[in-house]
Design a protein that fits this description.
The chain is an alpha/beta fold. The chain is 32% helix and 15% strand. It contains 13 helices and 13 strands. The protein has a 5-stranded mixed beta sheet, sandwiched between helices. Strands 2-3-4 form a 3-stranded mixed beta sheet. The protein has a 3-stranded antiparallel beta sheet with strand order 5-12-6, with helices on both faces.
């Protein structure tokens, strides 16, 4: 999934304000650090946490430093788990290392820069494993829903395109070749007999236009430079709010399942093997956060905005998977798409190789249902 980070949110603002888009207020970042987190490599004692419900006042509890990249700007359950103390309850201290440049999260895990990833999709994990990177999907994240789709295909209001069947021959904006940009479009057309070959297989039946900067393909639709965008949140909602575009369809229309937006929460194999208690804690904390986010949707938006120093309108809702573990049936869709669109060949990898359900999360405490965030962030993500 293409994520809007705090660092590139400001770039989006300058692009979209020129078209009377919703005003955004974001802080630039060259590599943020959390005020409550020490440098990577050490342990720390547990701190009291706003809303935390599992430490029972134990201020001497030793926490494991888990290194991650800076957070993106959405209702990500990761930020919820951090703010509400679910990670500390599980014995984990989160350490932010900044934004990555030139490498993926999975490459950074392999290089020892970070230990976990809370963005991306199962296809990315599969491709990383094929390349020999030792990473494993250990929990689900977001999912697709009819009201909160992963990707929305935008066209101008007066566009002659009426349905997703009209994508053949249209100029489609993407931010790069990948499953949730070009891949979804190829999968739809191949599955419905609208085209005969994938881009990865050398087909010239597609007219993809690549945009390097987040938010620019929406501008191109408005200007008539391309016919269709592959818009992730929050770009889709921001652009729709102008009233100058309409949705041709969504990823939920393509898959009719939550699987189309399935997020992959990933740990380094070295952490899983050497620190199984950390793997269990990570799974427990993320499960609690997914349930809390779904149960407290409006509060989740307020929480993420306050913690990241943004306006409420700068963060968008994403429904979380309420399954305890990774659903193998959801992965089937990703493997069908990966093979059909040529991301990998049959036999290169099996779905059982990319995930583990070894760590079944503990039931969320009953008190989580009534746990209210008090509106004052205990943690504030600081940018340099």
């Amino acid at each position: 999934m293409k994520k809007l980070t705090i660092g590139n949110a400001k770039k989006l603002i300058s692009l979209l304000l020129a078209f009377s888009f919703i005003a955004l207020t974001a802080c630039s970042s060259s590599g943020g650090t959390a005020a409550t987190n020490p440098p990577a490599g050490g342990n720390t004692s547990a701190q009291s946490t706003n809303g935390s419900s599992g430490n029972d006042g134990d201020s001497t509890k030793t926490l494991f430093d888990l290194r991650v990249v800076d957070p993106p700007v959405d209702y990500l359950e990761f930020v919820t788990a951090w703010e509400l103390g679910f990670f500390e309850d599980a014995g984990i201290n989160i350490v932010f290392v900044g934004e990555l440049s030139g490498i993926t999260n999975y490459q950074a895990i392999e290089q020892g820069i970070i230990d976990a990833s809370y963005s991306g999709h199962p296809s990315g994990v599969a491709q990383a494993r094929i390349e020999g990177l030792k990473v494993t999907m250990i929990a689900p994240g977001m999912i697709d829903t009819p009201t909160s789709p992963h990707v929305t295909y935008l066209v101008k209001k007066d566009s002659p395109l009426k349905t997703l069947d009209d994508l053949k021959g249209a100029s489609v904006g993407i931010d790069g070749i990948g499953a949730c940009t070009s891949g979804y479009v190829e999968f739809y057309q191949l599955s419905n007999g609208l085209t005969t070959g994938s881009l990865a297989g050398g087909s010239d039946e597609y007219n993809f236009v690549t945009f390097g900067d987040a938010g620019t393909m929406e501008q191109a639709v408005l200007q008539g430079d391309i016919d269709v965008s592959t818009s992730h949140t929050p770009y889709a909602e921001i652009t729709l709010a102008t009233g100058e575009v309409r949705a041709l369809g969504t990823t939920y229309d393509i898959f009719q399942s939550g699987a189309g937006g399935l997020g992959a929460r990933v740990l380094a194999d070295r952490v899983i093997v050497e620190h199984p208690e950390v793997a269990q804690g990570f799974v427990d904390a993320m499960y609690r956060a997914r349930l809390w986010t779904n149960d407290h949707f409006e509060q989740a938006g307020d929480l993420v905005a306050a913690v990241l120093g943004l306006e409420k309108g700068d963060v968008l809702a994403i429904i979380q998977d309420d399954h305890k573990n990774v659903s193998p049936e959801y992965l089937d869709i990703w493997f069908d798409m990966g093979i059909l669109t040529g991301l990998w060949n049959p036999g290169d990898i099996e779905k059982d190789e990319i995930y583990t359900n070894e760590f079944v999360p503990a039931d969320a405490p009953a008190s989580d249902k009534t746990l209210e965030w008090d509106g004052v962030p205990n943690r504030v993500f600081h940018q340099d």
